[in-house]
Write a structure and sequence with these properties.
Mean pLDDT is about 80; it is low at about 1-40. About 25% of the residues lie in helices and about 30% in strands. By secondary structure, it is an alpha/beta fold.
Length: about 350
């Protein structure tokens, strides 16, 4: 159980580090000279969230959970008015508290500073926040002279946090879809997984994950990382996805609730990807469009980029939940890339997802 409180304060306007959910509408609003659009960013405040965690330099202190508390101030994108009735336009503070409690239950740290870094990494990865101020403390420290708490205070911006991130940080687009509750829980597939950043992220959120890539060494390293992080729900397979064949046993029919493809393109795979989705299964796809090749000369060949609206044509049998192509923030530090981003759903009984408008 935990206790906490929430409030929202207006703060100075700032530029969102997250991709716009509705670029056309948001750009029009951003260019509106009316003064009501100025200074409408807001701050989510969570006061004294109490939970149990294992933290202490001595092993004896970590054997039993102890009471911890955290205060948070999160500078968020959007406006307080937008947040009144549309949770997808703000930070879901209930979800923030749930995730912190989950970390407290699963992590074992010698230092409060280590746990603080884990909380910061989670917040910047999973939620559209620009700045974080937090105070983490032990409520009953093992010190005979101590009558209060002992802890650490940190203030950090997303820009300052980015150089500390590693390749294990998941795709911002994928993390956003999870926050919007667009991923049905169950079995997930990470195609061309590489270092496994998305596979590890999904596995840490309870998905049964298959990761596949042609790089045998990368898959071996991913398996070792999953074992180190105690993620038995992640399995790896070494597969040459670009071999010339009409048989695709690596994509069993109606096998996956979620399929993720991030910055990889092999057009011949699309029929197999679509067939491998369960009814109401969801495809999350992001990769470069031709604009990125023309402006940044990356990837090295233009054939590795999508033409405008090509991703929609390749997935035309699926129901489009969200689609956007254009300039987006990079998942790997400062700068931007030109990509197409798609969330699409396989046909099935009922409707699990809401389209973005």
């Amino acid at each position: 159980m935990f206790r906490g409180a929430y409030s929202a304060d207006k703060n100075a306007a700032w530029t969102s580090p997250f991709p716009l959910l509705h670029p056309a509408n948001d750009i029009l609003t951003a260019r509106n000279p009316i003064l009501e659009n100025v200074g409408m960013a807001y701050r989510v405040v969570i006061e004294r969230l109490e939970f149990q965690g294992r933290c202490g330099v001595m092993p004896a202190e970590r054997r039993r959970p102890q009471p911890l508390a955290i205060d948070l101030e999160l500078d968020c994108e959007g406006t307080a008015a937008e947040a009144v009735d549309q949770i997808n336009k703000t930070v879901d503070y209930a979800r923030v508290t749930e995730r912190i409690v989950e970390l407290g239950e699963t992590q074992d740290c010698a230092l409060l500073e280590t746990f603080t870094e884990q909380v910061l990494a989670m917040l910047f990865t999973e939620f559209p926040v620009a700045n974080v101020s937090l105070w983490l403390r032990k409520l009953a420290p093992p010190l005979s002279q101590m009558t209060g708490s002992v802890g650490v205070k940190v203030e950090r911006s997303r820009m300052a946090h980015q150089p500390q991130q590693t390749d294990s940080a998941p795709s911002l687009f994928l993390a956003q879809q999870l926050q919007l509750h667009r991923l049905p829980k169950g079995k997930a597939l990470d195609v061309a997984a590489g270092s496994g950043r998305n596979a590890l992220y999904l596995a840490s959120h309870g998905f049964q994950v298959d990761a596949m890539d042609r790089d045998e060494q990368a898959m071996a390293q991913l398996a070792a990382t999953a074992k180190q992080r105690n993620l038995p729900n992640l399995t790896v397979r070494t597969v040459d996805l670009e071999r010339k064949t009409e048989e695709r046993p690596e994509f069993p029919p109606q096998e996956y609730d979620v399929i993720v493809v991030s910055f990889y393109l092999h057009r011949a795979l699309f029929p197999a990807l679509i067939d491998s989705l369960k009814p109401n299964g969801v495809l999350i796809y992001e990769t470069f469009i031709i604009d990125n090749y023309l402006r940044h000369h990356h990837p090295r060949r233009w054939e590795f980029c999508l033409a405008h609206n090509e991703l929609l044509r390749l997935t035309s049998t699926l129901r489009v939940v969200s689609y956007d192509e254009g300039e987006h923030d990079s998942s790997h530090g400062p700068g931007s890339v030109f990509t197409a981003r798609l969330v699409a759903q396989q046909a099935g009984p009922g409707s699990l997802l809401h389209e973005s408008t």
